[in-house]
Amino acid sequence: MMKMTNTDTTPYKYGPFLDLGLAATTPYPLNIKINSAEGVWLNCENRGRLFDAISGIGVSNFGHGHPYIKAALHEQIEKNLHTMVYGEFHHESTIEAASLLSSFLPDNLDTVYFVNSGTEAIEGALKLSKRITGRHRMIACIGGYHGNTAGSLSVSSNSERKAPFLPLLPEVSFITFNDIQSLSEIDDSISCVIIETIQGDAGVIVPSEAWMIKLREVCSKNGVTLIFDEIQCGMGRSGRPFAFTEYKVTPDILCVGKALGGGMPIGAFVSSRANMKLLSNNPVLGHITTFGGHPVTCAGAVAALKLLKDIDFVALERRCDMWEQKLSSHSSVKCVRRNGAFFAIELKDAETTSRVILKGLEIGVLMFWFLSVPSAFRLSPPLSMSDEEAEIGIAMILEALNVA
Ligand SMILES: Cc1ncc(COP(=O)(O)O)c(C=O)c1O
Q1: Cα–Cα distance for residue pair 400/358, rounded to 1 Å
Q2: Which domain holds residue 74?
Q3: Where would a tag sit more exposed on the chain, N or C end, judged by fewer CB atoms within 10 A?
Q4: Which atom of ligand 1 is least distant from the CA of 265?
Q5: Is residue 2 in some structural domain?
Q6: Chain centroid to CA 44: how far?
Q7: Which residue's CA is the nearest one to ligand 1's atom 7?
Q8: Within-domain flag for 42
Q9: 315-331: string of b/e by CB count within 10 Å (b at 16+)?
Q10: Which of 268, 289, 310 is the last residue of a domain?
Q11: Buried (b) or exposed (e) across 237-254, using 16+ Cβ within 10 A?
Q12: What is the pLDDT of residue 73?
């Protein structure tokens, strides 16, 4: 415990995270100390109250510490925690979470494999596509982000972030998102095409319906598995439960994560029963996880999925439209891209973006950077914010923008 008692007067030798015995992910972490969190608010020891305008990067969609989610977790904790690795025992919460998740999805997405994170859902989906097709070549999109393990990094597009870790998966090629001509690269040698339905890290890029329909058509014609990553844009973020339903196309595999657990760590890949059966033979245990489908995590997912059914998407759209109008009218904003409650705000340059985000922290609102678009900042507020909270949040964001 001694290691944890750094005082404010002790100069950091290596940076605060390293001095506390934690691995730092950047040399300049925000170092916000959280005491508690409730609804849209983070209560911080060293920053006071912060309006969370990013929901922990698309996780706390139903607000922090939702009483319904907390009660579901407590109830499951009283029953049992981990008992056995995924797939051997039945837990009521795991089965209910799978059935609730598939109740939002078309008939061919009726079988769920729960894992521990978004990136693992992608790994599972890529492996499954190899079993479905017997092929290994993959196509992903420029601007796409799918995670940070070896497979998911291979299909992510930011080459600077991949360079030190090469070689990754072989024979992955990248096409232009939302470009009809690029689809000619998909042929019957390809195992899968993976896309984010709405590109998040690229700065909230929304594809056209024509492209989505053609993409589905070309994949079906060539026997290529189509994978939609809704890890960030799913679970209500797009202003509907799952973003792809807008396009009248269905993927062969859907990946979900982030908000699915109601704040607990989870991921899932979902496909048809016939496809998923392929992971049970040749070899048996085609994907293995110790903690996937954890009963407590899945109790969080059951509660989150029930809350998703109750989201008032009309009211959410009204609040987010109001944010968009006000943001677009600010003289420093070059453009706003939005889908539902998922925003990218483009400013002059990277330096201005950082200035605005840091000013926000001073004023009391948490906004954040994109990994791959330095001239923009992200907003993804809790879907549960009220009219009054939406007004408080946008007032602080506009005030922060005045330093741009
Ligand atoms: C679209 C998308 N896919 C995959 C991931 C990876 O999820 P995780 O960080 O839970 O591994 C993320 C995370 O930000 C994401 O936004």
Answers
A1: 8
A2: 67-310
A3: N
A4: 10
A5: no
A6: 24
A7: 118
A8: yes
A9: ebeebbeebbebbeeee
A10: 310
A11: bbbbbbbbebbebbbbbb
A12: 98
Q: How far is the CA of 332 from the centre of ligand 1 (A)?
A: 30
Give the pLDDT confidence of 63-121 residue by residue, as tens digits: 999 999 999 999 999 999 999 999 999 999 999 999 999 999 999 999 999 999 999 99
H helices of 332-386, in order, are: 350-363
Cα 3 to ligand 1 centre (Å)? 31
Q: Which of 144, 143, 60, 33 is nearest to 380 (CA)?
A: 60
- Going by pLDDT thresholds of 50, 70 and 90, the confidence category of residue 210 is very high
Q: For residue 128, what are its two tokens?
A: 């499954």
Confidence at residue 1, expressed as pLDDT on a 0 to 100 scale: 36
Cα 232 to middle of ligand 1, angstroms: 6
- CA 146–ligand 1 middle distance (angstroms): 5
Instruction: Give me the pLDDT at residue 19, please.
Output: 81
**Which 3 state secondary structure label does DSSP give 336?**
strand
The whole-angstrom separation of Cα 397 and Cα 253 is 37
Q: What is the pLDDT of residue 4?
A: 42
Residue with tokens 């059951």: 302
CATH number, residue 393: 3.90.1150.10
- Specify the pLDDT at position 3: 42
Residue-wise DSSP of 146-173: --SSHHHHHT---HHHHGGG-S-SSSEE
What phi and psi values does residue 104 have, to the nearest 5 degrees?
-85, -10
Residue 14 lies in a domain: no
Residue spans of alpha helices (H) in 104-233: 118-133, 150-154, 159-162, 209-221
| Rounded distance between C-alpha atoms, residue 250 and residue 247, angstroms | 8
Burial (CB count within 10 angstroms: exposed 0-12, middle 13-18, buried 19+), residue 183? middle
**Residue 290 domain flag:** yes
Backbone angles phi, psi at 72, to 5 degrees: -65, -40
pLDDT at 41 over 50: yes
Q: Which residues line ligand 1 (CB under 6 A)?
A: 57, 117-119, 122, 145-147, 196, 200, 229, 231-232, 257, 267
When the pLDDT of each residue in the chain is averaged and rounded to a whole number, the result is 95
284/244 Cα distance (integer angstroms): 32
